[in-house]
Design goal:
heterodimer, A: alpha/beta, Transcription Regulator spoIIAA, 5-stranded mixed beta sheet, globular, B: alpha/beta, Spore Coat Polysaccharide Biosynthesis Protein SpsA, Chain A, 3 domains, 7-stranded mixed beta sheet, 3-stranded mixed beta sheet, 23 helices, 10 strands, about 55% helix, about 5% strand
Chain lengths: ~110, ~675
Amino acid sequence: MNIEMVDGPGGVVVLRPAGRLNMVAAPAVREAVNSIVDSGRSRIAVDLSGVDFIDSSGLGALISGLKSTRQAGGDLRIAGANDQVKLVLSLTNLERVLTPYDTVENAYGDA
Amino acid sequence: MRVMPGGDVDDSMIDGLPQPVDQAGSERGATARFIAVRILVILTLLTGTIYIVWRWGFSLNFDAWWIAIPLVMAETYALIDVFFFGFTLWRARSRPAPTTPPAGLTVDVFITTYNEDVELVRETAKAATRIRYPHRTYVLDDGDRAEMRAMADELGIGYITRGPGWQNRPLHAKAGNLNNALLQTDGEFLLILDADQNPRPQILDRTLGYFSKRTVALVQTPQEFVNVPDHDPLGSQAPLFYGPIQQGKDGWNAAFFCGSNAILRREALMQLGISRYVVELEQAVSAALAGATRVLRQARRRPEAKDPRVAAALDEIRIAVLEARRAVREHSESLGTVTYRLQQTITRVSEELVGADMALIAQDLEAIGELHTESGPDFDVLTDVGANVDALTARELSPLGALSSVQKLLRSIDVDRDDEAQPLMPLATISVTEDMATSMRLHGMGWGSVYHHETLADGLAPEDLGTMMKQRLRWAQGTIQVMLRENPLAQRGLSVPQRILYFATMWSYLSGFAALAFFAAPIIFLVGGVLPVSSTAFEFFLRFLPYLIISQLLFLVASRGLSTWRGQQYSLALFPIWIRSVTSAVANVWFGKPLGFVVTDKSGPSGRAPLRLVWPQIVVAVLLVIATIVGIVRLALGVGEPIGTAINLGWVVFDLIILSVLVHAVRYRGYGADSESDERVTA
């Protein structure tokens, strides 16, 4: 999977995975997050607008990312989820943990 | 890997060849047997109910209630067990032959090992590489051994061991081993193998087809052992369990995962892991917030809180905690948002105060550090939180310390689940037998399971009594843990039959207590002349014999002519194990005591004196013999009642025959040790 990585507003790093975020792509997302955290930055927004399908392994990668950013004192937030992704978030109840924001800008609106 | 205590059966009539799933020729016979089983189930329940109603209502000897009540309770227990057996068998049928799986599925084969010999694992790994359907093979080595890694490299297969993230965190035994590997691999399906289960080449071709049904999460195949002699002295084979019982459970969509020789769908496991993460996180955060409120309230009452700056800081945090609690309770914001904001607040307020009392905070942090090591690894994040809160409240912490301890407390159960090596634990960690707990949760989420009745792996069983007993104890303990922690009868996601069938397996492990009554009653009569049943012999046999004969017939027909005798012997003869499993699991789940868990070592003798292992049974056997002598003497002296003595002498003989299985077991020196040929596993 090709994951675009750009600097967002307020020192936030924006990750843009594209296509299917499934068990095959999940390790790449985990590694991308880890490399950002290792480089000393820990506020990450994952822009899911380019993701047309996510499975539980993909969600697992987001949770792993949440763990590593939180432990580094930062946070991981998600934005731009399409209907399929939102449905999966709701079915697994993961929306109880990760708020799906409309846009990357809104994701870190509070900070 | 689990066997109901009553499920082990003498395997002398199995020829060791794989039984095809469905043979057209035997289909009519199978249908006839299916109908016969249903008729026998109804008759057994009918005669059993008549007998037990008569026992409770019309034949209790109230003068000897202290033995009459335990005995009738034991008999009721046994009837309920038979009822569960009948319910299981009601839908026990062979499945039609599986369809050929499509090409292109991705499969990871996991071989789990902890302390098994490298050579033993090598045999299994080599067999795994010969599996025909394309796959990747991994050795999951919890022993972290260099030789094992070298062996894996040599065979060109993957090697996975625990990373640094697991240090100082609960390892969760085999469940943890599998959970660790799950996050480092990406196959759509996972074949789980114990180190001593050699897979046959067709294992995936025969099972993957079931997954074309999108709701199937699990396919379990039998566990059979090649290093067991025909008379099966240790009761290793379980053709009744890996046969009619699992087939019956399968008929109700309740076949469960037995730890090895099973294929799992990754998506189902990951989905389970995520929904458990959310559930447990919400519980942990709620509990931590409640604990934080308590710690703060206590801190506020201490003399140091008279300092206005300290008081203001504590109040600010208390308000933030209360707001967080409300948000969590009302679901108005996500847990991620709530905990993040709360931590920011706590961090800011603490930093403002840090200068004020550096020394105190340092001191308290040290105390908190000690608390962390004291609490040690535990299964349940909630007990950890509770223990930490209690410990913190009990300690004489300064208010500033309380502040940082609140922060520490919240950090430890943040959305990152710092108490665990990884936030996702798809395989259940609530029990030492993760397999049953995991499949019950999968069923609870609406996933389905399949039992495929065809031997597709050749296993090695323990070869000495000590190892066998440890293994049985572990299975029993794990099952009781699940019963106490997540009682199937109360699991909302499960169908009623699924609840009954999971509970049935747990129920069968309570047989140790019933066995005590069955051993005690004849001894008490023969020695003291006390009869728990007040009835004539005719009245008794009129109701007991039909029940006994028909239920034995049911066992005979259901087990397809195989003798269920070895299983019946062990379900009574191992009574100390079953009792210990219940008491130790209760102590563990309700009082936090360690289980005294031992990993099953199947590679050789335990080196312990076997007679010591079975001392309770020896005591019982001696008492039975003494009772026999006393009973005969009493009869000769004219004190004993002839018919009662005859019945109870017969009963004693039955008990002694049951216990005699241990004589074979104690004398057993391992497979091939006393026969001409030693055919150990060949791949």
